[in-house]
Fold these 4 entries.
Entry 1:
Amino acid sequence: MTINPDGTLLFQWGWFTINATIFFTWLVMALLTLGSWLVTRNLKSEGSLSRWQNLLEVLVNGINSQIREVSRQEPGPYLPFVGTLFIFIAISNILTIIPGFIPPTSSLSTTAALAICVFIAVPVFGIAHRGVLEYLRQYLKPTFFMLPFNIIGELSRTLALAVRLYGNMMSGTIIVAILLTITPLIFPIVMQALGLLTGLIQAYIFAILAMVYIASASKVHQDLEKKGEE
């Protein structure tokens, strides 16, 4: 069983190479794009809704509810980013039930790229809500001497986000490989079910942590809004 998709080379032409991580990432993105087009091309606001539109509305409402609960803000600005993170990771992990599919989330390259997206999104949302000076001022709190520690905290948080998802997916793959070697007739179905559950939980945790970091970056704006309402 292939554990790390980075080491599986599928195509090479000179310096241009495509490994399993790139291929399956593109495959997941293509499936999501095609699925989004198929589901949203005939959306209705009245009458009987298709099962796919019902499923889409349940998914969007669920993500909106979680964003609202975590951030205490309207989910509109955050839904595209957080929802995309959750759906991409969840679909990548769910597709592991297909023989031959290697989840790109079991590659540190993919999880690091997702974590970097969160690392960039946090100041973008923070500056959009609080302004540049107010956002940068938080790195000087409670004193100027905390600046290097606050910067290290931001970097370590991003690293932890990438390693957490990679480690959980990698360890799950290794455990499945070991159990399938020991008892191939008993564990496959059980481990596949547990793998799906674990994959969905990991997608949920990653999206929630991303939302927590973004909500933390816009906290002052939220406090100001509360004071204004009072």
Note: Residues 32 and 123 are 27 Å apart (CA to CA).
Entry 2:
Amino acid sequence: MVILWWYWLIFGMLLMLGELFIPSFTLFWFGLAALLLGAILYFLPDLSLPSQLICWTVGSIVFTALWFKYFKPTMIDRTKAGISREAVTGQTGIVVKPPQDDLRGIVRFALPLLGNDEWEFIATETCQVGDRVEVTDVSGNTLVVRRKP
């Protein structure tokens, strides 16, 4: 059976289009390997079918490994933006400005919380600068905290 270079190009494009229906970001790398094999086969048309399959398999593994090693870790959102209240509850921060009279206090987190590292808060207990507090609830744009022992 003779497999022409453009067969691999079409196969690669179909795999990449399949990513639209199965958003796992896995088919994309198999498709990219098929496109690469199509380019290789264009310049080396006498490559046997088993060699083609080995090249496609190795290419798929290499692209997938590169994805997990180098690209995916940079795409992790550490801000927790858009995450529900349950993800915020239990986070611990340091009071940088205690609440006074009608003014709310300000708490700072080591990692940004919902996209910001400082938040206004109201507390159920008296807080001082440097106290560690734990988020117990969210009220509008204000965190509700309690002092953490």
Note: The chain has a mean pLDDT of 86.
Entry 3:
Amino acid sequence: MADASISEDDFQKFREFFYRKTGIQFDMSKRYFVDKRLLERMADTGNATFRSYFTMLRFQASGVELQTLTNSMTVNETYFFREEYQFKCLVNSLLPDLVSRKKDDGPLRIWVLPSSSGEEPYSIAIYLLERWAGIHNFDVEIVASDIDTRILEQARRGLYSPRSVGQLPTAYRQKYFRQVGEDFQICDDLRGAVEYTRVNLSDRADTRAYRNFNVVFCRNLLIYFDDVSRKAAAETFYDALKPGGFICLGHSESMSRISSLYKVRKFPEAIVYQKPTE
């Protein structure tokens, strides 16, 4: 390969381009991570220089390479029942609040993004089945989205390592999973209970169809965005939620520092953010 290297100027050009396309911003501490993946994609696509690869990335009509690169650039590490206190808040506080105000026969809709490999949406499904009596009285739809098409396929397969299911009560693991070699695959009923979709949170054309949700889980994603992208994401969630709907962020994230669109609600289990009822 003639010039298989990423210069400082190359890095800055790529960082700006990737930010505009995905809303994800890499600082200099991620330089090694970004360079490594760019060089891998250059080799895999037969581009000898960053310039030729970057030209293909920008002008490829299909967008296939941009999606492939995005898949390699996104971090997907999670496990079942991570930050469980918010699931407790969902069943003990949020759903009772929503049900008390519910005036239609439609389903309760929950949007989870990023879905990663499915641990979070499946955790929510298990929590509802095991710990919310209302599951017998209301239809619940769970939609889980991610920008990474590879990880969405992994989520649909529902096959997990022992580490991924390590925080699950043994009874739940035995009830909802079957062992496949050393791994565990979630049961077909739960795989069918979650709808997985590809979405770029920074693309309004992608998110326009996401409406009428009662709860949004968006945990540990906005930390990768800058202030402009975080504000845009907050507005996207506002449009996606029904009046009175809730959004749950990661434990280190605060909507109050991003947008004034939401009310802060303090429940015994967690602090969440609510779209005003009117």
Note: The first helix runs from residue 8 to 22.
Entry 4:
Amino acid sequence: MWISKLKLDLRSKAVRRDLASPYEMHRTLSRAVSQALKEGSERLLWRLEPTRGTESPVVLVQTLTLPDWDALEKGYAEVYPPKLFQPALWEGQILRFRLRANPSKRARDRGERVALKTQEEKLAWLARKLEDGGFHLGKEAGQYRATIRQDTFLEVRKAGHIIQVQAVLFEGTLEVVDPAKAIETLKRGIGPGKALGLGLLSLHP
């Protein structure tokens, strides 16, 4: 896997367009791995990182193949050289994590995906997803070892309508339970909405 960091230039009209539309952002970033996407050998994940008000927006991008950021429009972003990401995971390893995801469920009557409402529901969703993905989100004094740093809604246009998609930024610590499964989870991401900048799981010692 490769990790790229892009510091966006707000003077770019294309950047302002992409920040207003996650689908457009995904389309722009996909240009860097367009051939691999056509061949079906790519799984692009990205996340708009939390920044302070006066800082330039930063996008973190994870790809399975080496991206070619020359494909971006000139002046779009300051691109830091992509770094090869080959995590060495082992059972029992404790790591910090960050994940922006869409904690949701299918409504039984309509079949539509609906956002979870309470903090407890969202953290329980996170714990289940991590458990399915080869990790364990432990508890301390009855509380999950994770916090919700941001909880917002993305507005996206679909079939001529504007819909809202919940985007929750989780941070905390987790334990690696199944290293092989965990690597696959890192590659494919967690939860729905990958094209909206959701699902990229980042790990840190």
Note: The longest strand covers residues 161-176.
